[in-house]
Amino acid sequence: MHKTTFRQIMGFMSVIICHLTVKTFANVSCPSRPLPAQVIRRSRSHDLFFVDVKRGRDEWNGKIPYPRRNSGPFRTLSGAITGIRTHRKSLKKRVTLFVKQGIYFVTETITLDERDKGLSIVGYPGDRRPLISGAYRIPGSRFTPFGQKIFAAPIEGKCSKHVFLGDKRLVRARKPNLKRWTGNDMTGEGPYLRISDLLRPTSKCNIEGIGGFKQDYCHPDNQHGFVFKEGDIDLRWRHPETGDILVFHAWTAERGHILNITARKNQVHFVRPLKHPIGMHPNPSGWRYIVENIFEELDATGEYFCDETNKRLYLIPPEGPLNSKSVFIASEDILFLVKNTVDIQFVDLAFRHSHDRNLERYHAKPSLLQFEDANRVVVERCVFSNIGHTAITLDGTCVNHRIFANKFHDIGYYAVHTGYKTKSLLIRKNTFTSCGVSHMFQPSCVHVRGAANVKVVENKISFTPYAGIKVGWQPTFRSSYLRPNRFVFIIEKNDVSNYGMGILSDFGGIYLSSNPRCSGPRVDLSECHLHARVSLNTVHRASAYHYGGMGIYGDTAVSSLRVEKNWLYDLDGAAINFHCGQNNLALNNMIYHTNDHRIFGTCNRIVGGGVLLRQSLSFKKNVIYVANSAARMWRSSDEWVFAVPQVNNNIYFFRMFHQHQVDEFFPKHRSLQEWRNSTSNDLRSVISDPLFQDVAHRDFRLRSKSVGSRIGIKSVDLRNIRHNSGIC
């Protein structure tokens, strides 16, 4: 009798799975689960195991989904991995571990290695996505009133910069307060306090900011603190040593942990020096800072303070007592470490609540899913949210990875970051929102580095304090690395919007760069080629704090870029910037330029250490619709030597048509005719209305009567990219 029942369970497992998926499909949130489900049976080549946090036991064999006498699913993920290794008879068989719904708290990193080859960890079809958390939970019932608005509860683990009330991120008690807490806030949002003076001002680096953009030399003492305005840092704080100060530079912001406060001089000093001295970039920094994690500043909804010494958490919830709501304190930084193995899959899972080891500066790791020398990995239809640092990293030799149809939200630093040895990577159809929430060393949602066949396509990316997609920052290649029209990186059909958010400066929605060897007076530009194609993307709604909210930005002499058929509009800087470099082409882009900055950027002497580098670049068959009377084609500091950029077959249109603007719009304050006569550029270009379909609704297709067809410009329809990219 019992044996017959067991056979029935095993024999009809796939039927049960399909039935459950069909029945509950409509109730599953984005990303949707597949319909119908793939039918998987136990076979000689494939085995099944189950884990159920509510009804399982790790001492069972995990081979059936429901408890039955002395058998049933595993209870914990770590127990399941150990059990599978014990019961698995051959590494030649693929294994699927079905994870039933519930919350799985990971208290120690789960390592997958060569013993786990061919393992798929999959959310059980028909259930809600199982949640895998790196936090410890405090039930709302444990919080008791502490004063008028504050509630407090004891904690069992360590404090964290990443604490969540349900799915909303709480903010460390800060000064000044956010204008309004939403639970989806950026740490770097204003308002801000302002530095009063430097610890060691000099004639070349001082609070007056003589350099404007950059001051040449700032004393190293200015890495250790600053002078504050009377009252901004309160001398009555009982424990200032618990606090951090978030200091803004130009394209980064970093934390200094408070060592002490010198009351007589209004000076604050840090435990460790900052990476950059304060004062290097006076205007872009705005001399801004924010104070975090001081108990006396716990005075606004959504703020919290964690007392490490007395093991108590204090917070101000939005609606009085927490009651049934839980608070999650992130404690584990790496939930899964996958190394030296192949054929690993994570499918239909939810991941939340990772820690960041309190790291600052340029550290992509730790990450919640960390792959090291792992090949043929799939991450599909998963949800990543409330992440302390990075969600996914690929490091070492990683080949044939697919990151597909996932949703990323509320990410501390990067959602996805890859190493420069990466090959054959596809990041496709994902939705990314709110990256760089707490870590601001040039953050982005996606940062890809690689050696061959790296594709980032059909993703939706929005709300970052800096870039949307970063490409490069790695050892680059020679121009002969690939045959013509072959690319290491393909960045295509992505929608990138609402980036910068008025927090940092000097970035692009799609930002490409090389490495420090490609700057300086002795640089060999033949080794600075990235070989990237950036095409059919919509890049829009940029906002920089001070300058440089660009569309597509090739920095640090990065070379062999092909920027083609993109829609670039509503930006806060240049539409396209080739900051030096060779063999760079901007072709057939639709540009709607609303800001008062340049449209195209070229080289200046910063990259060459005071020496202007040899460069080669072309701007051809682009439509430039100028909607700001102060805008110019290039700024006065954009230069070139050895070869004039090739510019031709473009359409220029000035919506407000001021003769003064037209007469000096072209490089070196020239009119079109003067520009043609002096350089032989733009001989086939025209000044004419391009006849966009609907500028008001940002539809930049060309009408059939547009002059573009006569000079070789093709209409580009990216409406579907803007509205239907990503998974959600």
Automatic annotation (TrEMBL):
Q: Hey, what's the signal peptide range on this chain?
A: 1-26
Recorded superkingdom: Eukaryota
Question: Which intervals hold domain Right handed beta helix?
Answer: 371-471
Q: Which UniProt keywords apply?
A: Signal
The cross-references to Pfam families, in alphabetical order and at most eight, read: Beta_helix
Q: What is this protein called?
A: Right handed beta helix domain-containing protein
